[in-house]
């Protein structure tokens, strides 16, 4: 498995560890000019959970893949936290923000994969 796919897997594990919901991956590798190779989109129920999901992704990616994000934005309000790993962008939303921005449909010509929620 290549390094980027391994990072995506590690990010998903970090999100599932803190009960992230409605996780999807968007494969942008076939689009020329895309800003990254993959996007991982997820939601948490409260700003506290959104922040915990971000922390879990940070820890998981650092520990398991040896990766740190190039930047993280949105920690202050924790309604939408974006994490940039270069080849992978992570978006962690509150449900209302996710519905409003609807990133999955912006990239509907890409392969969007739903990851089952863990109970």
Automatic annotation (TrEMBL):
The protein's matches in NCBIfam families, at most eight in alphabetical order, are given as: rsfS_iojap_ybeB
Any single Pfam family the record assigns to this protein: RsfS
Q: What is the lineage of its organism?
A: Bacteria, Pseudomonadati, Bacteroidota, Bacteroidia, Bacteroidales
Q: How does it assemble?
A: Interacts with ribosomal protein uL14 (rplN).
Where is this chain primarily localised? cytoplasm
Spell out the subcellular localization from the entry.
Cytoplasm
Q: Could you list this entry's UniProt keywords, alphabetically sorted.
A: Cytoplasm, Repressor, Translation regulation
Family note: Belongs to the Iojap/RsfS family.
Protein species of origin: Parabacteroides faecis
Tell me the superkingdom of the source. Answer: Bacteria
List the protein's name. Answer: Ribosomal silencing factor RsfS
Q: Which InterPro entries match?
A: Iojap/RsfS/C7orf30, NT_sf
Q: What does this protein do?
A: Functions as a ribosomal silencing factor. Interacts with ribosomal protein uL14 (rplN), blocking formation of intersubunit bridge B8. Prevents association of the 30S and 50S ribosomal subunits and the formation of functional ribosomes, thus repressing translation.
């Amino acid at each position: 498995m290549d390094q980027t796919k391994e990072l995506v897997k590690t990010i998903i594990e970090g999100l599932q560890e803190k009960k992230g919901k409605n996780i999807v991956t968007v494969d942008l590798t076939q689009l020329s000019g895309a800003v990254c190779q993959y996007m991982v989109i997820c939601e948490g129920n409260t700003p506290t959970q959104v922040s915990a999901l971000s922390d879990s992704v940070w820890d998981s990616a650092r520990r398991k893949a040896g990766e740190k994000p190039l930047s993280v934005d949105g920690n202050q309000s924790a309604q939408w936290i974006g994490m940039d790993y270069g080849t992978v962008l992570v978006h962690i939303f509150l449900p209302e923000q996710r519905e409003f921005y609807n990133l999955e449909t912006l990239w509907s010509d890409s392969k969007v994969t739903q990851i089952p929620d863990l109970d």
